[in-house]
Amino acid sequence: MAAGAILEIRGLAKRFRARAPGAESPWIIRDLSFSVREGELLTIVGPSGAGKTTLLNMIAQTDTASGGEVRFRAQVAPLGDAKALRPGLSRQIGYITQDDNLLPWRTCLGNVLFPLEVQGRLDGQTRARAQSLVEAVGLAGFENHYPHELSGGMRKRTSLIRTLVYDPPVILMDEPFGAVDAQTRALLQADLLRLWGEGRKTIVFVTHDIAEAIALGDRTLVLSRAPASVKSEHLISIPRPRDIGGILTRPEFVTLYQAIRAEVA
Amino acid sequence: MSALEQASLVESAPGMNRRRLLVMAGRIGLAALLVLAWQVAADTAGDLYFPQPLAVARRIAEDTASGALPWNTYVTLRLSVIGFLLGCAAGILVPFLLRLSPRLTGAVEPYIMASVGVPKYALIPLFILWFGIDDAPKLWLIGLLVFYVVFIAVFAGIRNVDARLVTMARVLGASESVISRRVIWKSLTPFFFAALKIALPRAVSAAIIGEFLVGNAGLGFVIENSRQQVDSTGVFTGILVATALVLAINAVLERADRRVNAWRPVDRHMEI
Prior knowledge:
The complex is a heterodimer of chains A (265) and B (272).
Chain A: E1 5-15, E2 27-37, E3 41-45, H1 52-59, E4 67-72, E5 75-76, E6 93-96, H2 108-118, H3 124-136, H4 152-164, E7 170-174, H5 182-199, E8 202-207, H6 210-216, E9 219-223, E10 230-235, H7 251-264
Parallel strand pairs in A: 3-8, 3-9, 6-7, 7-8
Antiparallel strand pairs in A: 1-2, 1-4, 4-5, 9-10
Helix pairs in contact in A: 2-3, 2-4, 4-5, 6-7
Chain B: H1 3-45, H2 53-66, H3 68-99, H4 102-116, H5 124-131, H6 135-160, H7 163-171, H8 176-213, H9 219-228, H10 232-260
Helix pairs in contact in B: 2-10, 3-6, 3-8, 3-9, 5-6, 6-8, 7-8, 8-9, 8-10, 9-10
């Protein structure tokens, strides 16, 4: 195991059931390995359909693997059998999915408090933390709004802090800012970088947007087309704190962007 | 909401009031027309077929003053509510138990669905045979009728729950019982209330039919007893009070629905 790795993916594979009888069942992911250091913000880019979401589902333990293993702090997660899966690995792995998946009958604040309530950890201290997160992402004044009364960007923010509030050591993010306009997306990215800078969580951030991957990440992995495996790795040496707007014109950004684009295309 | 939209809403408020007044006037007019038609029917067909509206009103007043009508209404209401609660509890519990085992569900489902087809009222003679002539056979009838309506709604509701919400709750560390109560139950409450709106009037109907056949109190007994004495005024009195009872129950239900499902982005008001 690599020194300081909190999460280690080894030889992970996923095969989908054959569509027609007799047809060979396709591999969507095959022999995929990488590790994530504690406190690292790792970004993963790949062409659409490369199995990025499937990869995160397996790490989050919401889907089984056809081979390989996921280790969290040197402990092997059970991935073979659907019944043995432990989604979120006992609250150690947070997962922010593409859809915000907010509970429509709970208000913005109600959704943020939901993990604390179900974990039996709702007290004055955690409630204050929830409130400060609500304020940190500009949702103050919207606490009592239902999800359908919030804009797309606000829903994304709610979903983001719903995971941050219970402080899991690892957070997986699956194109969390995919469905919002460019300006909102830049604001959300800035929010994420600021919050990450304060807490230094370990984050695995999947996206198809190369610029986003470079702007956010300490390191970017490029996935190959299906069956997906790690095609290349790029260290992002652009110093932090980063300015999301200004970063796009830096020479090292442009070099990285062109290199990664050539690989993804 | 933009300022423009807000402005147009403010402007349309008097228009909305006028519309509401018109609807109200229409309702009162229709009621008057109905009573008028009743009066004409009573004058042409005679008291046996259509008793005089005034006679029915007088009967309601008399029997209310004597305490007979409130007592009979209470008997029917009590029976309906107990039967309803029993059927409702089973209708919620069974689908949640079935959720624990997909295999058991697969085995049991066709039998439950087939038993929906059994005409429940046809079972009354059996219930009397099995459970005697007290409240028990009536409660079985009411409970069974309510059970199917609630069961089907809750069963369908559980199947319709957004699986992504359940997965999300699991990742956040929610136990299965928390998921049942806080995710699945919450997301099926609209289904549940739709079922209640069908089940509650049915419970009252079933109680009345039960009282036709068994017992010596309740609105069903009032109606059947009056019929035997060729007292059409008594029959009409019973029907009117039973209708009022169902309407009152519906109003309570409607209020509860609005409270519980206030989060839904659905407009239930007719104004807009």
